[in-house]
Amino acid sequence: MKIAVVTESSANLKAQAVKDYQITVVNDPIMFGNHVYHENVDITTDQFYRLLKVEKEIPTISQISMPEMQVVFDQLQAAGYDQILVIGLSSGISGWINNLKTYAPSVDGIDVRVFDSRTACAGTANMVKLAAAMALADYTLDEIIAQLTRLRAATTTVLIVNSMRHLVKNGRIYNNSSLAGTMVLRNKPIIMFNGHGKIQLLGKERTLKNAQQAVQDEFSQFVMNSQLPVRLDVISANDAQIAEDWASELRYQFPAVRVKTGVIGPVLGVLTGDHALGMIWSLDWKPLLTTLNQEQKQ
């Protein structure tokens, strides 16, 4: 069976990865007032953060329509694919993945499965690359989903934000009864995706350095308890140098961990605002795939 892997632009996949793993990417819409922009089509990440500084209204997340997705499905079917796996941004911050789950059974002529990453950005991207690499290696769709479920269970996404107002405006904060004090200018709220993919407050610190240390302590526990290779992605919203500096420190402190840097693009940036900083850690999907391939040959 020939399996197509589809994801959203919010995964921030590099063009080379899209090409190498034959991934289909659909572009997420965001809204500033009544104006709709499509990520990487008519607004880049840099343009988004510049617009965020001058626009009076806080932007909101929109959704790719089902007719747009049907066009993608028709194109993949015409290209000879037998099955489609869509891996999307957490349903805890976007209704798109749940709408797609409802719509998928009505698609004629091709089997469409939908997987909720329950994370965003590099967290989703790592799942997409694992799925696409497995599809190219002729694993079945059920085998791919089983490994995605394993990777998702091991993935933690933690973000340090400057303000909670974007999350509150978009109604994307879970259990917001503990928000008292996070609106103080000097506080650095720390948020995370919980097991259901919803964003909740993890804590708050007085300074960015303290917040980074708090997040790093959480990551250190994961590394100590993991029996398998670990990957860490340090992501930032319009603060690439700070992310790279932090990543350099982490590479020194955790030499066995594969540490990468990435961006918080417009879709998640709608919720975090600018100058957010985060860590996404999980099992390293590449060694995981290598082990699977070795087991398959035995």
Description of the structure:
- With 298 residues, the chain is an alpha/beta fold.
- The chain has two domains: 3-28 and 62-153, Rossmann fold, CATH 3.40.50.10170; 156-288, Hypothetical Protein Tm841, Chain: A,domain 3 (2-Layer Sandwich).
- The protein is built from eleven helices and 13 strands.
- The strands form three sheets. Strands 10-9-8-13-11-12 form a six-stranded mixed β-sheet. Strands 2-1-6-7 form a four-stranded parallel β-sheet, with helices on both faces.
- Mean pLDDT is 93; it is low at 177-184.
- One of its GO terms (molecular function) is lipid binding.
Radius of gyration: 19 Å
Strand content: 15-25%
Shape: globular
Tell me how many strands there are: 13
Poorly predicted spans: 177-184
CA-CA gap between termini: 22 Å
**Overall mean pLDDT:** 93
Strand order across the biggest sheet?
10-9-8-13-11-12
| Helical run tally | 11
- The CATH architecture of the largest domain comes to 2-Layer Sandwich
Largest sheet: 6 strands, mixed
The CATH topology of the largest domain is Hypothetical Protein Tm841, Chain: A,domain 3
Quickly name the level 1 CATH class of the largest domain: Alpha Beta
